[in-house]
């Protein structure tokens, strides 16, 4: 079998390049080899950024391709073996069915008030003339929102400790930690002060706190609760079995981790772009002001320019650079290459979003592109697609829009430093290369806007 072309130098060098500067490595490969090429990482991996090929992969990812869990091992130390991300096949399908309803449809309405209140809490700490770190503020918002969605109203010492330890675990994003994730042999516990030792002790404590919460709910059942944990505990599979404690614990960890850092990073980028270009901010504020003093979540969700800014933010530097790996199941022809079973294929979200033929001047932030034309789910795919498409997509989209609306209608902010901001790998996400600081110029109005949570 002849794989698509790609760099010929040693696999170890390619792997280090991938870990340290993934975007420029992908760009260099695309420039030289086109929209399908092979990188040598743990094994040969075919990177794809051709929309027709992506459609083929993502629409037949149970027939010609599979979305196996054994290629997602980098997530296992953090999320466990029972996470939606680390399971596959029939078990994965059933688990997705359990997790989808609380993250979709009418349920969004109930989260509107939570998102609004949490954002209000966080921005009430900002002071005129003072600067703050945007990423830390966004992390606090998204962490509290996902905690409340998962556990319901959640206060007290256990909630506080959980919030603190998870934040500490997720803020450990040094290149060394990423190298450890890619090289399991380096995952060694050399005591509580060592990098991996710290990680496993924190993880142990998080598991204790989650299990204490599960146990308390088993001892004192309350059928009126509608939070995600209660729904998961009440769920039964086709044989009438409930989820085990180990399954519950890993799924909670998955939602808390996946539902928090990705959205916080996307919000940080959005605030950067909006304030980098005063005309973008002006247009957005005008649109949001026109929705009235108490806009309902539906109007915010549908506001066209806000939607365009949200899409362009996730296009230019997609928080997730890649889809999860797919593996060829039966011999297929992809972009003219005959791929044999077991070939690993990655959808490069980043390179697809940088295609000049789809997005002229792809390095420019231009929300108008999303007003001028519609892109297919294989041209614009910040949440991946197919059987592993992000289950938090609706939740993240809703949360980002409500948080941005709340901030922009109540605060006048400015970037402390408006130099161009390149992207950089931060753990497993694409984040700004330097911390972004903003300053509060003024509060836009004394009566802070509230969100009307009924939908019309
Ligand atoms: C801006 C925010 C987010 C982005 C950009 C994002 C992106 C992605 C991407 C690209 C995938 C892989 C899809 C594929 O391989 O086809 C994914 C999967 C996943 N995401 Fe998200 N995500 C975000 C927010 C969230 C939130 C809020 C949650 C949970 C509340 C979440 C939970 C998950 C889970 C559990 C999976 C695995 C799905 C599976 O394997 O079936 N994500 N996400």
Could you characterize what this model shows?
The protein has 456 residues and is an alpha+beta fold. The chain has one domain: Cytochrome p450. The protein is 49% helix and 11% strand. It is built from 19 helices and 12 strands. The strands form 4 sheets. Strands 1-2-8-5-3 form a 5-stranded mixed β-sheet. Strands 4-12-9 form a 3-stranded antiparallel β-sheet. A two-stranded antiparallel sheet has the order 6-7. Strand 10 and strand 11 form a beta hairpin. It is globular, with a radius of gyration of 22 Å. It binds protoporphyrin IX containing FE. Protoporphyrin IX containing FE binds next to helix 12, helix 13 and helix 19.
Keywords:
456 residues; binds protoporphyrin IX containing FE; five-stranded mixed beta sheet; heme; alpha+beta; Cyt_P450_CS; single chain; Cytochrome p450
Describe the structure in brief.
By secondary structure, this protein is an alpha+beta fold. It has a single domain (11-443), classed as Cytochrome P450 (Cytochrome p450). 49% of the residues lie in helices and 11% in strands.
CATH fold name? Cytochrome p450
Give the name of the CATH superfamily.
Cytochrome P450
Rounded Rg: 22 Å
Broad shape? globular
CATH architecture: Orthogonal Bundle
How far is it from the N-terminal to the C-terminal residue, by CA? 57 Å
Beta fraction of the residues?
5-15%
Query: Would you count the extended β strands for me?
Result: 12
Query: How helix-rich are the residues, as a percent range?
Result: 40-55%
The total tally of domains equals 1
Please, how many helices?
19
Largest sheet: 5 strands, mixed
Regions with pLDDT < 50 over 5+ consecutive residues? none
Mean pLDDT: 90
CATH C-level name: Mainly Alpha
Associated small molecules: protoporphyrin IX containing FE
Class inferred from helices and paired strands: alpha+beta
Strand order of the largest sheet: 1-2-8-5-3
């Amino acid at each position: 079998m002849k794989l698509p072309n790609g760099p010929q130098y040693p696999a170890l060098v390619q792997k280090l390049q991938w870990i340290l500067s993934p975007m420029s490595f992908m760009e260099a490969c695309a420039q030289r080899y086109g929209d399908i090429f092979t990188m040598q990482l743990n094994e040969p991996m075919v990177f794809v950024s051709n929309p027709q090929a992506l459609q083929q992969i993502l629409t037949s990812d149970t027939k010609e391709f599979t979305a196996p869990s054994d290629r997602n091992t980098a997530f296992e130390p953090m999320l466990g073996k029972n996470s939606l991300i680390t399971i596959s096949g029939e078990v994965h399908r059933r688990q997705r069915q359990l997790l989808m309803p609380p993250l979709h449809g009418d349920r969004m309405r109930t989260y509107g008030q939570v998102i609004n209140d949490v954002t209000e809490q966080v921005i009430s700490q900002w002071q005129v003339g003072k600067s703050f770190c945007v990423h830390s503020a966004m992390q606090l918002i998204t962490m509290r929102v996902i905690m409340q969605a998962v556990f319901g109203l959640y206060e007290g010492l256990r909630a506080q400790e959980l919030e603190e330890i998870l934040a500490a675990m997720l803020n450990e994003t040094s290149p060394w930690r990423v190298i450890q994730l890619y090289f399991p042999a380096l995952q060694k516990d050399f005591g509580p002060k060592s990098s991996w030792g710290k990680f496993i002790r924190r993880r142990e404590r998080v598991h204790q706190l989650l299990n204490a919460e599960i146990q308390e709910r088993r001892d004192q059942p309350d059928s009126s609760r509608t939070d995600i944990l209660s729904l998961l505990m009440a769920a039964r599979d086709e044989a009438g079995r409930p989820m085990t404690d180990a399954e519950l614990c890993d799924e909670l960890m998955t939602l808390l981790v996946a539902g928090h850092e990705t959205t916080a990073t996307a919000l940080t980028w959005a605030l950067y772009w909006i304030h980098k270009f005063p005309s973008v901010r002006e247009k957005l504020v005008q649109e949001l002001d026109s929705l009235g003093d108490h806009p309902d979540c539906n109007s915010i969700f549908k506001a066209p320019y806000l939607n365009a800014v949200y899409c362009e933010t996730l296009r230019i530097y997609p928080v997730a650079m890649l889809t999860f790996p797919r593996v060829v199941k039966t011999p297929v022809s992809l972009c003219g290459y005959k791929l044999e079973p077991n070939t690993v294929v990655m959808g490069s979200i980043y390179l697809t979003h940088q295609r000049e033929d789809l997005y002229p001047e792809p390095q420019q932030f231009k929300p108008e592109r999303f007003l001028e034309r519609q892109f297919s789910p294989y041209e614009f795919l910040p949440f991946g697609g197919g059987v592993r498409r992000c289950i938090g997509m609706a939740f993240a989209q809703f949360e980002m829009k409500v948080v941005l609306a709340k901030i922009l209608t109540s605060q006048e902010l400015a970037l402390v430093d408006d130099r161009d901001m390149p992207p950089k790998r931060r753990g497993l996400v694409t984040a700004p290369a330097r911390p972004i600081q903003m300053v509060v110029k003024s509060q836009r109005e004394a009566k802070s806007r509230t969100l009307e949570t009924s939908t019309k």
